[in-house]
Design a protein that fits this description.
261 residues; mainly beta; Porin; 12-stranded antiparallel barrel; 6% helix; disordered N terminus
């Protein structure tokens, strides 16, 4: 009988405990980074557009559900030296159902690359990104991303691996460790202009404690890249989430132009 009298108190404590947050995932800039940085003195402007025709509807209190959202991110990157560039981002949700357009945050991203290494399989660069997020889109209002970039090109084959580490600096997850958010791209140049490929993105939880698979986020995108000019970046893809916590369908495009001196 004593155990039965304790049961209501146990249930109250259990239901009052905070629900574990699903793994975070960047839904504004869905991109696997290349090794190369912007040439010194040049500026590249990119527009990232993502639409979620079938997205998740369950979310933390105070956050907008992703279902039917449209995201537009303006990225401006300037090359300062042969091996260093810095980018700034204006992050918006161009459409939130029932709310219209919303400001989602801003970011700054310095990136360094190491000299080419012909005798080593990968060329390597690394970026550091600090995000200032609106709580309606990300409960952690300040975040840090450390993104190593490992790239290999051989003939028509292109491979880039981004084993991202992400950390909440301010917000409910600020006491947690780095989260693992890898991205991988494999592409094949079908013609001198058209490259077909696959991009894969995941968010698996902290590096010391991976979440159960159903709470992880995994997405895969068949992609088309158009190499119309060295000054243009054109990437188009349709993505599919592979777990229940992932966005179900995603349409994405990246259109960028590199301005001359």
């Amino acid at each position: 009988m004593r155990s039965l009298r304790c049961l209501p108190a146990v249930l109250v404590v259990w239901t009052a405990a905070p629900t574990p947050r699903a793994a975070a995932q960047d839904l504004f800039e869905i991109q696997v980074y290349p090794y190369q940085t912007v040439e010194p003195g040049r500026t590249m402007v990119e527009l990232h557009n993502n639409f979620f025709p079938s997205g998740t509807t369950e979310t933390a209190p105070g956050e907008f559900a992703v279902n039917h959202q449209a995201h537009t991110t303006l990225e401006v990157t300037h090359g300062f030296t042969k091996y260093f560039e810095c980018a700034g981002y204006l992050v918006t949700a161009s459409h939130v159902p029932g709310h219209g357009a919303e400001f989602a945050g801003a970011r700054i991203r310095p990136r360094f690359r190491f000299p080419e290494t012909p005798n080593v399989f990968f060329n390597v660069s690394i970026s550091f990104e600090v995000g200032f997020n609106q709580p309606e889109f990300e409960a952690n209002t300040r975040t840090l991303e450390i993104r190593p970039i490992l790239e290999h090109e051989e003939g028509r084959l292109y491979l880039s691996i981004n084993p991202d580490l992400s950390k909440a600096l301010k917000g409910p997850d600020s006491g947690e460790g780095f989260e693992f958010e890898p991205g991988v791209k494999v592409a094949w140049s079908v013609t001198p202009i058209v490259a077909a490929g696959i991009e894969y993105y995941a968010a698996t939880g902290t590096i010391t404690h991976f979440l159960p698979r159903e709470e992880q986020r995994h997405m895969i995108f068949p992609t088309i890249d158009l190499e119309v000019s060295p000054d243009w970046e054109l990437n188009f893809a349709v993505g599919r989430g592979l777990t229940g916590s992932s966005e179900h369908w995603i349409l994405k495009s990246i259109v960028g132009y590199k301005f001359k001196h």
